């Protein structure tokens, strides 16, 4: 492990993506209250994409202050249906409500990423993906919730595309890494530009 590159996240999927890409880094959870930050940002009337970027910046800067010599990667993702922003469901009933709201409609995943060093933001990027959920039956919805169990509450959209969640969709436009919450290709390009990776 090295302190040169720090991922400001406790997300196992983001960590795995970076490991698979051959990056050497340390993962450190950011000590931020995302809902409190969202409340502070309400007067700015940010769109869902800008909100993802600001949350990513808050994480990157908080960890950067603790590891000033490191290049810190902050990430956040919002899911939106128009201007409505969703959060992870607290229980199965809320998961059912989310899936009913998304059924037969297209929603967007907004993945923000920010690089910081010495408590200063160096770079920010937003990637989006549009996912069209098919019009499934109530019987399918109940079967899906039963099969997913507790996992349905692990993601804001109540699905994992790498699992049975793929059955919810009829079309997807966007980068797979964006959907998983880490826009890896722009990140790698920026790390090369900063001399953190060989070109």
From TrEMBL:
Swiss-Prot/TrEMBL cofactor(s): a divalent metal cation
Q: What is its main location?
A: cytoplasm
What Pfam families has UniProt attached to this entry? Maf
Catalytic residues (UniProt): 76
Q: Which UniProt keywords apply?
A: Cytoplasm, Hydrolase, Nucleotide metabolism
Entry GO terms, CC: cytoplasm
Q: Which reaction does it catalyse?
A: a ribonucleoside 5'-triphosphate + H2O = a ribonucleoside 5'-phosphate + diphosphate + H(+); a 2'-deoxyribonucleoside 5'-triphosphate + H2O = a 2'-deoxyribonucleoside 5'-phosphate + diphosphate + H(+)
Domain of life where this protein originates: Bacteria
Does the keyword Hydrolase feature in the UniProt annotation? yes
Where does this one sit in the cell?
Cytoplasm
A Gene Ontology molecular-function term?
nucleoside triphosphate diphosphatase activity
Which enzyme class?
hydrolase
- NCBIfam families in the record, alphabetically? maf, PRK02478.1
Which protein family is named in the record? Belongs to the Maf family.
- Alphabetical list of HAMAP family matching this protein: Maf (MF_00528)
Tell me what this protein is called. Nucleoside triphosphate pyrophosphatase
């Amino acid at each position: 492990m090295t302190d040169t590159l720090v991922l400001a996240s406790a997300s196992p999927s983001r960590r795995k993506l970076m490991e698979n890409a051959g990056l050497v880094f340390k993962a450190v959870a950011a000590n931020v209250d995302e809902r409190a930050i969202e409340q502070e940002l309400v007067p700015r009337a940010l769109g869902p994409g800008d909100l993802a970027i600001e949350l990513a910046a808050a994480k990157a800067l908080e960890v950067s202050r603790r590891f000033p010599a490191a290049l810190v990667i902050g990430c956040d993702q919002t899911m939106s249906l128009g201007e409505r922003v969703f959060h992870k469901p607290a229980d199965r009933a809320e998961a059912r409500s989310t899936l009913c709201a998304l059924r037969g409609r297209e929603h967007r995943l907004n993945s923000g990423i920010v690089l910081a060093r010495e408590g200063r933001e160096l770079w920010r990027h937003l990637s989006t993906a549009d996912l069209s959920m098919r019009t499934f039956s109530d019987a399918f919805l109940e079967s899906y919730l039963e099969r997913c169990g507790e996992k349905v509450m692990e993601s804001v959209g109540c699905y994992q595309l790498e699992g049975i969640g793929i059955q919810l969709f009829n079309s997807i436009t966007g980068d797979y890494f964006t959907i998983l919450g880490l826009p890896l290709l722009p990140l790698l390009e920026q790390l090369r530009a900063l001399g953190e990776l060989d070109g």
